[in-house]
Amino acid sequence: MKKYLKLSVFVLSSIPFLLISYKIFFNKLGPEPIKEITHFTGEWTLIFICLTLSMSPLKRFTNSIVWVSFRRMLGLFVFFYATLHLLTYVGLDYRFDWSPILDDVVKKKYIFIGFAAWLLLLPLVITSSQKMVLMLKNNWKKLHRLIYVIAIFGSLHYIWLSKTIFFKPLIYFIIIFVLLALRIKFKNGKMNYG
Amino acid sequence: MKKIKYSEITPEKIYKNRRKFVKDLGLAAGSIFLSQNLITLANANIESEELKLTDYKYVTTYNNYYEFGTGKSDPVEKSQKFKTKPWDLVIDGEVEKPLKLSMEEIKTMFPSEERIYKLRCVEGWSMVIPWLGFPLNKILKKVSPTSKGKFVKFTSIFDPEQMFGQRFPILDWPYKEGLRIDEAMHDLTILVTGLYGKKLPNQNGSPLRLMVPWKYGFKSSKAIVNIKLVEKMPVSSWMKASPNEYGFYSNVNPTVDHPRWSQASERIIGGGIISPRIPTTMFNGYGDEVANLYTGMDLKKYFQ
């Protein structure tokens, strides 16, 4: 049963990738295709960050541990979409022309923080296997709290690149804020989700 | 004050490219009248990708016009019922003979000619568009600006009933923009009544918009109802919304970054996934015509 559930989560999580591949292949991306791919993969990265962060709260709310078993896969999809996002920017948009890219990373705070978020994902991906969980023991949990920092960086990345304060970046910021706030309160034992 | 030629403040590579660009684009830059029949001819001479006319489809479906929403496709979707008749333009302020003209009068008094200009958006993309319009100076000469008329303020229509975007405080409505008098009098500065040989579509700022090709796109106001000559530098809607990001001059300048993104290069709309970025040129390639307006000015200080 759990196996099928996991498979469905995998299939569902691949849909955005299939969708954008279809659009690229059939030239359905409109006037600014590269921007479209960049925004699409960026937004799905944020969505997967939110989904990953929702699993523990869902466990509390529903009293079911099934959610936690999706967490690793969802987390890996965060990395998958974030990497597509980064590759679109570096490869498709700037054709691996490193000097303007490095210039952007250093000078533009939204690119700096976005790149930093991607780098922070790396140790989480490397230590995502069951073997690593057992090896790192308590440190694993501490290390994987990095996702909180990554989530905040990700939402700031979106807010800072927007021309004025717009609706969508704020929505993601609020969702991430709430998801993180739920954890703080739970840890202090002030609220009971049982 | 030290005089700065913009060739000195532009990296050599970009400068050389610009020269080539201007040479190629001579037909557009020199304010030459170009008949409809000549467009194909002109196209044949344009070799590089960046000088191809942008598809009509993209010119009219990919727009920034926050009065109709902040999405790029909002203007085309939400402006079709916008009423552009009757339409009056008032030209007043520091002038000897203020004028109120209907669109019909404007069209008969100032016959439109075709101008192929590149439009560079501050967001980092560009289009090459065959506009129909006439030099703004023709209309300004009619009202005889006084010596106090040092700046020109453009006010767009305020109509939240028809423009749902104006119901939200995204910008200081109605949309306001401005030019210095010499910029406004420059032959390249035109009032636009159409594009691609047709009536100006609503989403592109019908019935009357501005086009200042060496400045970022937002300087070229749409749906203008008032042109006012003023003594002091007007504050534009974008300056008010974000003063450290949008300046009064807002000349296209690859060496001055937007605070949040680089302006060194741009994407050509409609180029598809394979088309690479092109380097942005000083004054959007119109430096030979307009650089002299800014001699002695520190273009980094008067950013954008």
What would the keywords be for this entry?
heterodimer, A: about 190 residues, mainly alpha, B: about 300 residues, alpha+beta, Sulfite Oxidase, Chain A, domain 2, 5-stranded mixed beta sheet, globular, disordered N terminus
Low-pLDDT segments of chain B: 1-50
Estimate what percentage of residues of chain A fall within beta strands: under 5%
Instruction: Work out the helicity level of chain A.
Output: over 70%
Query: Which structural category fits the helices and strands of chain A?
Result: mainly alpha
The CATH homologous superfamily of chain B? Oxidoreductase, molybdopterin-binding domain
Low-confidence segments of chain A: none
Mean pLDDT of chain A, nearest integer? Answer: 90
CATH architecture of chain B: Alpha-Beta Complex
Number of strands of chain B: 12
Helix content of chain B: 10-25%
Q: Give the oligomeric state.
A: heterodimer
- How many domain modules of chain A? 1
Number of H- or I-type helical stretches of chain B = 11
> Shape of chain B from CA axes?
globular
Structurally, the number of domains of chain B stands at 1
Overall form of chain A:
globular
CATH fold assignment of chain B: Sulfite Oxidase, Chain A, domain 2
End-to-end Cα distance of chain A, whole Å, is 25 Å
Q: Give me the secondary-structure category of chain B.
A: alpha+beta
